[in-house]
Each structure stands twice: as structure tokens, then as C-alpha cells.
Design goal:
four-stranded antiparallel β-sheet; 51% strand
């Protein structure tokens, strides 16, 4: 059974940084696409970032609201992926979910495109 576990959330002041981690288990093969979504109270789930691999290319995608501030990466040796969040703003406050999928090609921004989800980690940015 595939399981994704996020960590690294917390409370930070505006302008600060956090790094979220996602550790998977239960895979027999590594997913081709990994990513992050977030959901703030009273709002719909929102795409944040994703990265995918094919035989000869790597694709990444970021929402406009985080582009230039967030980066996504993967440590193959640790089988963990990360969301580095810099210059955090109060509007980044949300429950952050890591996701994965086995589709090949550029990352999809629709929540329904991802088969596996973590339980979420809370990020709160104070002004």
C-alpha cells in the first residue's frame, strides 16, 4: 500500500523560509511525477508545484503565486522529495499535501490527476 508522509510544516514569520519533506513508502517502482498542493480554509485545493521525469527530459511546473519563491526537488538516494519555500507570505498559509503519480509527461495541475496523497502538513505564516 502506497503511503506518503509529509513533514516540515510549522509557524514562520513573513519573509521566512520552510522546507517541506515527503517520504513515500509502499512503492514497487518510483513515480514519474511528484508534487505539492495546498488548501487554505474555505478555499479549493490549489496546485503549488510538481516535477516529472521521462527517459530524456525533466519537466517542472509552478503556480504563478509561488514561482520564483518555491523550488521542488527530489533526493533519489533518500527517496524523498522536498518543497523549499522562501520569502513566505501570509497568503501561503495552508495545509500542504504531497502527491505522486505514474503518468509520463509535463506535470498536470488538476488534483484529480494524482493517484496518491499524503495527509498534509500545516504551514502558517504570520504577518
Amino acid at each position: 500500500q502506497v503511503r506518503l508522509v509529509e513533514s516540515g510544516g510549522g509557524l514562520v514569520q513573513a519573509g521566512g523560509s520552510l522546507r517541506l519533506s515527503c517520504t513515500p513508502s509502499g512503492y514497487t517502482v518510483s513515480p514519474y511525477t511528484i508534487g505539492w498542493f495546498r488548501q487554505a480554509p474555505g478555499k479549493e485545493r490549489e496546485f503549488v508545484a510538481a516535477i516529472s521525469w521521462s527517459a530524456d527530459r525533466t519537466f517542472d511546473a509552478f503556480s504563478d503565486s509561488v514561482k520564483g519563491r518555491f523550488t521542488i526537488s527530489r533526493d533519489g538516494a533518500k527517496d524523498t522529495w522536498y518543497l523549499q519555500m522562501n520569502r513566505l507570505q501570509p497568503e501561503d498559509t495552508a495545509l500542504y499535501y504531497c502527491v505522486s503519480d505514474f503518468r509520463v509527461g509535463p506535470p498536470n495541475r488538476a488534483p484529480g490527476s494524482y493517484d496518491y496523497w499524503g495527509q498534509g502538513t500545516q504551514v502558517t505564516v504570520s504577518s
